Amino acid sequence: MKNKPILLVAGEPNSIFLEIFFKTLKNENFKSPLILICSKQILESQMKFFNYKFNIKVLEIDKIESYNLDNNSVNIINVGYKQKKTFEKISVKSRSYIEESFSIAIKLIKSNFTNKFINGPISKKYFLNNKFLGITEYITSKFKISNSAMLIYNKQLSVSPITTHLSIKNVPKKITKNLIIQKIKLIDIFFKKELNIKPKIAITGLNPHCEGKTNEEKTLIKPAISYLSKKKIKIFGPFPADTLFLKENRKKYDVIVGMYHDQVLTPLKTLYEYDAINITIGLPFLRISPDHGPNENMLGQNKSSPFSLIQSLKFLDKK
Questions:
Q1: Residue 275 pLDDT class (50, 70, 90 cuts)
Q2: CA 299, 304, 307, 310 torsion-angle sign
Q3: How many CB atoms lie within 10 A of CB 283?
Q4: The domains spanning 1-145+283-319 and 149-279 adopt the same CATH topology
Q5: Least CB-packed of 8, 9, 126, 192 within 10 Å?
Q6: How many CA atoms lie within 13 A of 214 on its CB side?
Q7: H or E element: which one contains 155?
């Protein structure tokens, strides 16, 4: 197959994902065939609700290599799941359905059917049940990957947190010199391999103004920067996070690396809103997630923006 398919796990059935998927199909074209892993019943119910008319082509997994796929129809792998209403409250009810959807995608990726994967939004509260910090950690565990990184990618500026979905009180305990080195190396490799860019990377401090009694900037961050600089990686800092995102500062860099999730994701989302995609780097395939959650409050309103999903698909469509 010339263009490997893009697998999409629809995720939480009571989310905005299918709404933005329909909007994407209506307005965009892709060279790579799209394969949606979801419930046919949910798909048809929401398609009717939003007044879309797409042909549906149900694929059998054991014949997946034999199909001549295109995007003239919605190609789906049907996972059994039904609801009495088009939309219901998010609950633990969908956990086994989502688990099966991920299992199918992981099986196809491990068989080398494709290396392109997108997952729709998941409710961490009900699906992960405190077993994993986030979907990034859930997916990396399935491939027994110990070293990965979250990259929120935007052409103008990307960000990456050293720690991901971690309670703020636990952040200082988690950060080590080696962890910083591992994450920065992954970012540098990704930009060189996938984007043909030798990135300029800025790194924040942990403490306000890079000062504090514990002074992780001096004991952990600066030694990591020194080591990485000797490896010819373009890394600079540590900088105070409260001024690093000012226009004249951020335009100097391709990536800003922070010590914890909200330290860098909050300013990026404020600057670019949905114009960003969540890439898990360090995996043996490309995994992307649109940069938003289930957005339960917007269900059925037909007001959700497909922009992040479109950007995700366009990124993979070039690969």
A1: confident
A2: positive
A3: 18
A4: yes
A5: 192
A6: 11
A7: none
Output phi, psi for 57, to 5 deg: -115, 110
Q: Is the pLDDT of residue 1 over 70?
A: no
pTM assigned to the model: 0.91
CATH code of the domain occupying 1-145+283-319: 3.40.718.10
- pLDDT tens digits for range 42-58: 999 999 999 999 999 99
Pick the CATH number of 149-279 from 3.30.43.10, 3.90.1720.10, 3.60.15.10, 3.40.718.10: 3.40.718.10
The residue assigned the tokens 């190396």 is 185
- Distance between CA atoms of 215 and 182, rounded to whole angstroms? 21
Is the pLDDT confidence value at 259 over 70? yes
Task: Map out the domains of the chain as residue ranges.
Answer: 1-145+283-319, 149-279
Contacts (Cβ under 8 Å, ≥6 apart) of 315: 153, 277, 279, 286, 288
Averaged pLDDT, 262-290: 92
Q: Which amino acid, one-letter code, is at 136? A: T
